[in-house]
Amino acid sequence: MLCHGQRSWRAPRRFHDLVEPLPRALAAFVPQLTYALHDISARTDAEIKGEVLTRLVLLAMRWIFSDEPVERLRDLLGLIGQVQDRETALVILESLLRY
C-alpha cells in the first residue's frame, strides 16, 4: 500500500482490526492479514531516496497537493534532466504533466 495523501495513514494495518466489533464466534473466520504500508506523506523530501525514476514518482505523488506547484515542477524537471535517455525523459515529462 502506498499512501501519498495530505495526512498520514491512520487506518489499521491488520484486516482483523477493521472488523469491529468482532463477535468472538466469528474471530476464527476473519483473516489475520496485514499489509505493508509505505506512507510518503509522513516523510520529508530528503528521506525520499533511490534511483531518479523512483524519486520522480514518489516526489510527484508527494507534491501533488503542494501550495507551490511551479517550484515543485522545477524540482521535478531537474530530476527529469538527470534521465540519460531523452526519449524516456520525454515520456516521463508527458506522464508528469498529465498527472
Description:
This protein has helices spanning 15-18, 52-63, 69-80, 86-98, and strands at residues 2-3, 38-39. It has 99 residues and is mostly helical. The protein has a two-stranded parallel sheet with strand order 1-2. Helix 1 links the parallel strand 1 and strand 2. Helix 2 (52-63) packs antiparallel against helix 3. The chain starts with a strand and ends with a helix. The model has no long low-confidence stretch (mean pLDDT 87).
What brief labels describe this structure?
99 residues; mainly alpha; two-stranded parallel ribbon; 2 strands; 41% helix; elongated
SSE string, helix = H, strand = E?
A: EHEHHH
Largest sheet: 2 strands, parallel
Q: Strand content of the residues, in percent?
A: under 5%
- The low-pLDDT segments are none
**Outline, from the CA principal axes?**
elongated
Spatially, the strands of the biggest sheet line up as: 1-2
The percent of residues in helical segments reads 40-55%
Structural class: mainly alpha
What's the quick description here?
Helix content is 41%, strand content 4%. The protein has 4 helices and 2 strands, in the order βαβααα.
Topology of this structure?
Blueprint: E1 2-3, H1 15-18, E2 38-39, H2 52-63, H3 69-80, H4 86-98
Parallel strand pairs: 1-2
Helix pairs in contact: 2-3
